[in-house]
Design goal:
- By secondary structure, this protein is mainly α.
- It has one domain.
- The protein contains 5 helices and no strands.
- The two termini are 24 Å apart.
Length: 135
């Protein structure tokens, strides 16, 4: 599931801070040991002292993972892992959607964040028959 995270990153293009009710971000959250850490960082509110760092870190991580997954998926001969709609969600919409998905899938919270992000992309943006085939 190492290819799961990249696709999501292309989706996002704004600022983070979705106002999710969660504890304040800690410096340890930035180590991203688990998906729960990524959710914490991506859910920081503007009142959090680490908000700016968290928003920038979240966006950078998500965009980086998405681009790797997208490029790897594009270079593969197998059917696509995910297919974004047109128009694609904004960066903020994509991140918010991932946070909501992760919160409703608590079994993912202890997983590696890039793996959970990749799974989110494949589940949320599943290709319809024919849309994920290679030409």
């Amino acid at each position: 599931m190492r290819h799961k995270l990249l696709s999501f990153i292309v989706l996002v293009s704004g600022t983070v801070g979705f106002g999710a009710a969660n504890a304040a971000v800690t410096e340890a959250s930035f180590q991203l040991r688990t998906t729960a850490d990524l959710v914490d960082v991506c859910s920081a509110t503007q009142s959090d002292p680490l908000y700016t760092a968290a928003a920038n870190f979240c966006q950078g991580f998500v965009v980086g993972v998405y681009r790797v997954l997208h490029d790897e998926d594009s270079a593969s001969k197998r059917p696509r892992l995910f297919c974004l709609p047109s128009p694609a969600p904004s960066r903020n919409q994509g991140i918010q959607s991932f946070v909501q998905w992760a919160q409703t899938n608590p079994d993912q919270m202890a997983q590696q964040p890039e793996d959970s992000f990749a799974l989110f992309l494949t589940k949320t943006f599943a290709c319809t028959p024919g849309s994920g085939s290679r030409s």
